[in-house]
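Field log, afternoon session.

UNIT: design team B
ACTIVITY: writing a sequence onto a fixed backbone
BACKBONE:
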């Protein structure tokens, strides 16, 4: 059964709303830095990345051969 086409209702126009006056921006205090991230030395992080990459390469090498 085909849909019956009928005239559509007119679009509803929005009423004018009062515009709020601009407010001054609120300054927010910067968050305290995370102390846990500052405790871990950067060379240790790079060492872990190198060891992980070496293990991954060894695993791929063993899979291929």
């Amino acid at each position: 059964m085909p849909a019956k086409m009928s005239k559509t209702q007119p679009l509803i126009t929005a009423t004018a709303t009062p515009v709020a006056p601009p407010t001054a921006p609120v300054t927010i205090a910067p968050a305290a830095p995370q102390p846990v991230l500052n405790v871990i030395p950067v060379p240790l992080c790079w060492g872990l990345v190198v060891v992980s990459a070496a293990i991954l390469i060894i695993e791929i090498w063993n899979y291929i051969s």
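LOG NOTE: Residues 12 and 19 are 20 Å apart (CA to CA).
NEXT ACTIVITY: expression trials, pending approval
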